[in-house]
Amino acid sequence: MIKKCLFPAAGYGTRFLPATKAIPKEMLPVLTKPLLQYGVEEAIDAGLTTMAIVTGRGKRAIEDHFDISYELEHQIQGTDKEHYLKEIRAVIDKCTFSYTRQIEMKGLGHAILTGETLIGNEPFAVILADDLCDNHEGHGVLLQMVKLYEKYKCSIVAVEEIPMQDSKKYGVIAGEFIEDDVVRVSHMVEKPAPEDAPSNLAIIGRYILTPDIFEILQNTAPGKGGEIQITDALLAQAKQGKVIGYKFKGKRFDCGSVDGFVSATNYFYAKSEIEN
Ligand code: UTP
Question: How far is the CA of 57 from the centre of ligand 1 (A)?
Fold first, then answer.
């Protein structure tokens, strides 16, 4: 059973400067909800109740968000504005939060390794909140992956078909399809040039990892961009046949880029118009 979800949220978010100078990227809202809250809700929907967040300097707003604001609660209690707090109250009621800080931003692999102290020796999920996913017929991407874990009991990366010219933005996998939407991964490359990409299947910000990943990460040298890459560590597992890629059902927005963020905002606004 997977109970814990790790959220690496220590990055600088330079593509969103100046907005991210004092506000964590993960707290930027799509409509009225911060990206990180969407991620936490997806984890709750997948049955996970322990949220482990890797933060860094200047990220204190994250801890305040997943806490009670007594003054605010007191002010709006019993007024017609109280319903605005309904969703975040429900989140706080359903799960626990723990935090650790990444002191130096040495990459996603390093951020995940920093989270070991919160995860311990058990399989866990990872959500990158800046990849915002909408569910498919009520099934969130992480829920789909948790179900798949019950069958394969190995690390899982969510993958999506991308235009080849975008390969430089992603980790790209290669392997053999063992089900319609499941690939046994044999190879993966971080941010390859289009001519070097082994396929058009790119890893997005949803993972399920088995805990041996921590020891592998400890021995993983800095890779692309001088950062410790989760892709390099996963490759070691893949070589033992212990990684699968899952072509998830649903929609994903790269909210770490301005284009993706604007698309997500338009999409969720249109969706809320239909629902209300
Ligand atoms: P990104 O590379 O998209 O985030 O990392 P970034 O570095 O904050 O963004 P830019 O490129 O400067 O605009 C993906 C995820 O990994 C986390 C980020 O917070 C983000 O959620 N991350 C990345 C860390 O927690 N620590 C790191 O050292 C690097």
Answer: 13
* Residue 58 reports pLDDT greater than 90: no
* Substitution candidate for ligand 1 out of 108, 116, 229 with most atoms within 8 A of CB: 108
**Is the pTM for the entire model greater than 0.70?**
yes
The protein residue with its alpha carbon nearest to ligand 1, atom 29, reads 107
Rounded Cα distance between 38 and 55, Å, is 17
Per-residue pLDDT at 176: 96
Ligand 1 center to residue 130 CA distance, Å?
A: 9
Q: Let me know how long the chain is.
A: 276
pLDDT at 231: 95
Q: Which two tokens stand for residue 111?
A: 């951020």
What does DSSP assign to residue 23?
S
The domain defined by 4-275 carries CATH number 3.40.50.1820? no
Contacts of 92 (CB under 8 A, 6+ apart): 66, 67, 68
What's the whole-number average pLDDT of the chain?
95
Q: Where are the domains of the chain?
A: 4-275
pLDDT, tens digit (0-9, with 9 covering 90-100), for 155-192: 999 999 999 999 999 999 999 999 999 999 999 999 99
Confidence bin at 137 (pLDDT 50/70/90): confident
120 residue type, one letter: G
Tokens representing residue 65 in the block: 């968000």
Ligand 1 site residues (CB inside 6 A) read: 8-15, 25, 54, 102, 105-108, 110-111, 128-130, 256
Question: Which residue's CA is the closest to the ligand 1 atom numbered 1?
Answer: 11
**Which is nearest to 159 in space by CA: 202, 200, 124?**
202
Q: What is the pLDDT of residue 14?
A: 94
Helix (H, G, I), strand (E, B) or coil at 86: helix
